Amino acid sequence: MRKDALARLLSTLLPDAVRQDLFEPSLQDLYEESARTGRGTVFASIGLFLECWRLAPSEVFAMFTHDVRHALRLLVREPGFTVAAILTLALGVGANVTVFALVNAALLRPLPYPDADRLLVLEHRDRRTGITKPFIAIGDFVDLRARQRSFESLAAFGTGPSTVFTGEEPFDIFVLQATPDLLGLLRTPASLGRALTADDARERAAPVVMLGYEVWRQRFGADASVIGRSIKVDTLMRQVVGVAAPGFRFPANARTDAIVPMAVPPEAPSERKSGWTFAVGRLAPDSSADRARDELTTISRQMEREHPDQNDGSEYFAVTVRDAVMGETGRALVLLLAAVGLVMLIACVNVATLLVARAVGRRQETAVRIALGAARWRLVAQWLTESLVLAAVAGSVGILFARWAIPVLVRMVPVSTGLPELARIGIDRVVLAFTVGLMGLTTLVFGLAPALSIRAHHAADALVSPGRVTSATSARRASSALVVIETALAIVLLTGAGLVLRSFSRLLAVDPGFRMDRVLTIDISLPSDRYSEEPSRTAFYARVFEGLRQLAGVEAAGGAIVMPLTGNNWTGPFDRADRPVPAGQRPPDVGWQAATGGYFSTLQIPLRAGRLFNPGDRPGGPAVVIISDAVRERFFAGEDPIGHKVRTGSGEAEIVGVVGNIRRAALTDQPRADMYFPIEQGAPPGMTLVIRTADDPLRSVAAIRTLLRGIEPQIAVRDIQTLDAIARESVQILRLALWLLGVFACAALALAAVGIYGVMSHSVRQRTREIGMRVALGASASNIVWLVMREGVVVAGLGAALGLAAGIGTARSLDALLYGTSPSDPLTLASAVVVLFAVALLACYIPARRAIRLDPVTALAAQ
Fold it and tell me: Regarding predicted confidence, which is higher, 171 or 121?
């Protein structure tokens, strides 16, 4: 019995001609041989089946081409169904391909370094405050490099803007300052000349520079004789020793126009955190990332025990180069890909619903084919082929949509995401492979639904009574089940979009502690050869601020080392002089900033007590400091802090003022304790100017440039933008997530509404006779409307219940994007359900209105 059942099963999976002409005669011979020899036939039957498939490619191909032609004829014959199905799938495919192209460029495309997966970037975490920084203290770097055994080598680096002064117009470049072993660590040799060497970083070594390949081509005409020539970078003459490889950039999301050597002290300085550096390492051949992280933890604990006054709570760890570049952006992109995947699934379910409804219309055709002996597998193959043709056409349209949408999405991606090489994002081989795979998956998802509805006894019913068949009821139930899935997925997306919208609205309502409107920011850098002494820099800034105050339209001007909302987490130790931290203990960290007195008035940070910095705070005078409200509350509870002194690395500074708290790193950052030191007492070679104007600050740019160039012709002026623009950039990734999730949620809601409408319309058509009888027996219009809408409400209710359960679980993955909002926020969940039910009721009401207009006589005569 078992071998006969297996043979019957295998025979149904073969083309008719192959089964009759090859498989069945060979199987009979196999049975006769088994009777003579006593050998089993199970494995022989399977082998025979595989051999028949191998010998019948022409038959299979002919069957496939026949089904393709049949599918194309059906699509042409049913234009309404064809347009609806293709547009639904094309939008889903296009959205998925668009987002996947971004994910591919950010997370899947190999980084431009050999064995990039073995490169790790070192970062610092303060366990006491929870603050993580992407750089490490210079003293700790020296000890880490000497003690570690998990890396082949560790290299330090930093990046920043500079200016090249040639015989022509000066031009700005982005410089990578690195220890000479960096290029070797990255496995990136020079394309011309030589790379940096250890001798280049020694004390009193001749200044040298490597040019980036693109700068060498664009600015020096790809002239090989540039090697050995000296060029002026900022104020220092450097000899060009080499040209980097084409396309080289490090980090991967930054320009590398030039590379200069960085010197690292051979021994850790006594002030271990007197400087900070970025660091990258390549894993040793016998090491792993987990082993390296464990070793970094061990060394961190050792340095804590050895230097508790500076390293208490300091912990170093390592992340991959890609994670260092992408940060939280990578996680956000994966979430967006998952969201757009749900839209694709809803589109597939919607098309499956259309196909099930069409299958009911073709039940007579199916019944005749089954009655004539068509195998079930043959009908399934035909359905899948029709689905494949539909998916191929929709996929082609979807790719065209993606080619238009990708540039739009790229323009929306903020620069702050750190996404490398945005210009190269497009439809490449990986994206095409993803599209093909997506098409194959969608073919199975929506193609099997009508195929699985084929039943032999339904076919017999269709032949006996074409007007009333049980398959119509089962098809309606299948369609309802599919719509339940649609509504559940729509609730998940509505919940996610609602949570992000709620977070975004709360974030926009946050008071940052300062005014951002009508404020211009300008980064400036002084030529060090002309301003090597601090008095000359102090005099320059005095002339600048005096000139700015006299410009028409300028209300206030100041300067600072770093700008708020740019992710800055600079900190410094806070130690009261009258209550010093016990010897051997590390003082608590607070925020650190250097600013002018005009910085506070320009940003309108309120003065709570004391005074701001003034011209009397000069170099050589008493050191002063301003603290924020949070410092006063934390360290001077119940006291007046004015006049108290704070210990600094070089002595003590007197507290002369208290200002309001601000959100310094980002709008999502809680106001932290901050200390402000006066630029007036230590003028740096560069700063960021902040200028408040009476109207649009960008109108004052030309006049400000003229003023600065008039005072110093060789001053470097960069990054001119408004503080409003900085604030918008700081929340741009959340804005992008909101926009995309909102679009996806609206698409899901529309598709769910179409699905509910289709099921209800189909239900009204199938129940025409029942509705006519109810009307004839005296049912009111409201009764008929409720009869129709009840089914839709039940479908929407089931979908909402399933969607809420799934939505609460998946919303937890949005934690990184949420601000002040719980993943299970009841108002958001309730709003999603209300919106869904409103759309569902509207989708049900239209066919319900059609039902009450039915003429009873016509309805009873139907079917």
Answer: 121
Calculate mean pLDDT across residues 437-464. 61
Q: Write down the residue that tokens 């069957």 correspond to.
A: 63
Helix ranges restricted to H, 509-655: 534-550, 597-603, 629-635
Q: Which amino acid is at 139?
A: G
State the Rg of the chain over Cα: 36
Domain that holds residue 681: 527-714
Q: What is the mean pLDDT of residues 254-270?
A: 89
Same-domain pairing of 436 and 558: no
Phi, psi of 378 (to 5 degrees): -70, -40
Residues 387 and 479 in one domain: yes
pTM score, two decimals? 0.74
Q: At CA 258, angle to CA 255 and CA 259, rounded to 5? A: 110
**SS3 for 12?**
helix
Is 180 found in the same domain as 268? Answer: yes
Judge whether 330 and 85 are in contact, CB under 8 Å. no
Number of domains observed in the structure of the chain: 4
The Cβ-side half-sphere exposure at 694, using a 13 Å CA radius, reads 6
Read off the tokens for 106: 């950010």
Residue 327 falls within a domain, yes or no?
Answer: no
Answer yes or no: do 262 and 155 share one domain: yes
Band the pLDDT of 467: cuts 50, 70, 90: very low
Instruction: Give the pLDDT of residue 491.
Output: 84
Nearest to 743 by CA among 484, 411, 407, 496: 496
User: Does 72 share its domain with 137?
Assistant: no
In a domain, residue 397? The reply is yes
Are 597 and 701 found together in one domain?
A: yes
Is 90 exceeded by the pLDDT of residue 447?
A: no
Rounded to an integer, what distance in angstroms lies between the CA atom of residue 597 and that of residue 677? 10
Q: In a 3-state reduction of DSSP, which class is residue 534?
A: helix
Q: Report the DSSP beta bridge partners of residue 589.
A: 573
The burial class, CB within 10 Å (0-12 / 13-18 / 19+), for 753 is: buried
Q: ∠ at Cα 692 (418, 567), nearest 5°?
A: 25
With a pLDDT cut of 90, the percent of the chain lying above it is 23
Measured CA to CA in angstroms, residue 421 lies from 79, 409, 566, 644 at distances of 42, 14, 21, 51
Which of 69-78, 487-496, 549-558 has the largest mean confidence? 549-558
Whether the per-residue pLDDT at 783 is higher than 70: the answer is yes
From CA 295, how far away is CA 150, in angstroms rounded? 7
Indicate whether 608 belongs to any domain.
Answer: yes
Mean pLDDT of 343-372: 67
In this structure, are 189 and 72 located in the same domain? no
Residue 149 burial (10 A CB sphere; 0-12, 13-18, 19+): exposed
- 3-state DSSP call for residue 859? helix
Backbone φ/ψ region at 497: left (φ over 0), alpha (ψ -120 to 50), beta: alpha
Lowest mean pLDDT among 17-26, 227-236, 317-326, 828-837: 17-26
Beta strand segments in 548-661, E = 554-560, 571-573, 589-595, 607-610, 624-628, 645-648, 651-659
SS3 817: helix
Q: Are 247 and 217 in contact (CB under 8 A)?
A: no
In a domain, 472, yes or no: yes
pLDDT bracket for residue 3 (50, 70, 90): low
- State residue 27's pLDDT score: 76
* 747: CB partners within 8 A, 6+ apart: 91, 95, 343, 346
DSSP 66-105: HHHHHHHHHHHH-HHHHHHHHHHHHHHHHHHHHHHHHHII
Neighbours of 601 (CB within 10 A): 17
What is the DSSP secondary structure assignment for residue 423, as one 8-state letter? Answer: G
DSSP line for 364-375: HHHHHHHHTT--
Asked if 645 and 753 sit in the same domain, the reply is: no
Higher pLDDT, 335 or 306: 306
